[in-house]
Amino acid sequence: MSEPLLSVEDLWVRFPTRNGVVEAVRGISFSVGRERVGIVGESGSGKSMTGRSILRLIRSPGQMEAKHITFKGQNLLDLSERQMRGIRGHRISMVMQDPKFSLNPVMTIGKQIVEVLRLHAKVSRKQAIVSALEMLEAVQIRDPERVFNAYPHELSGGMGQRVMIAMMLITDPELLIADEPTSALDVTVQMRVLAIMDKLVQERGMGLIFVSHDLNLVSSFCDRIIIMYAGRIVETCLAKDLHKATHPYTRGLLNALPRLDAPAERLDALQREESWKQERSVAAHG
Question: Which one of 194, 213, 261, 282 has the lowest number of neighbouring Cβ atoms within 10 Å?
């Protein structure tokens, strides 16, 4: 078996508060190859913090530690902040949840994409403009010239999300982290954005970490699924085998989903206490 693109071992993320230390991520380990890996969990389960930790984006007073976060044989924890800036947005890119907060409101779309490319690649401004227009076309934006010269507030949510994907992929990264990239979109736009992302990932042979709270969406889109609860990984399975999941928390998530093929008068409520007790037991026994 070939070496994975990314390997994370014993990752912890902590935030000191007035009421004590909150452990957002608690000792998780996983690896990602050239595949689509979904990380699923409720709000507050630690999935977004996991994605940010990979790029060392946890800022003070937050504390992050791990035995290693290895990307293509290189431990990212050993790199200086300057070296990490060469990794972020170049070899590993991250699509944030809401483009409204990720795009600069006073710069045109084209200027922002060109700036990203020229920061990481030695290309002329003219070459960067051509590449930016090609990338906007690749994410199925019909009028790339108009969008290139537009400002973020002039775009719809779906268009803004496509721009973010174009911006993150223009440097040809080897790993893409997508943090709920479709959560603010309606279902039809959501499926279009996922299809674009899937096509680009497969064509470029990239690895993808897809962070989401939508179990159905992830199971239909990803190859493997990591289920997180209260900062821990409770179960990992192939997407096609999700219906065979055994952990009570995963079963609870599945049973709480409405199904057209098996309508129920009342959906099951998620019972977290039982799952939490099992997690505490696992932690106590190593």
Answer: 261
State how far the alpha carbon of 24 is from the alpha carbons of 11, 63, 190, 212, in Å: 10, 10, 28, 16
Residue with tokens 């002039």: 154
Where helices occur in the chain by DSSP H, the ranges are 47-54, 81-87, 99-102, 109-120, 125-138, 144-148, 157-169, 187-204, 215-221, 248-255, 272-284
136 vs 264: which has the higher pLDDT: 136
d(CA 263, CA 138): 40
Whether the upstream peptide bond of residue 144 has omega within 30° of 0, thus cis, is: no
The CATH code that applies to domain 6-284 is 3.40.50.300
Sorted by where each begins, the domain ranges of the chain are 6-284
CA distances from 236 to 64, 132, 229, 242 (A): 23, 37, 12, 9
Closest-CA residue to 93 (of 231, 261, 207): 207
pLDDT reading at 283 higher than 70: no
Q: Are 172 and 140 in contact (CB under 8 A)?
A: no
pLDDT at site 227:
93
Q: pTM for the full model?
A: 0.84
Both tokens of residue 149?
A: 């010269």
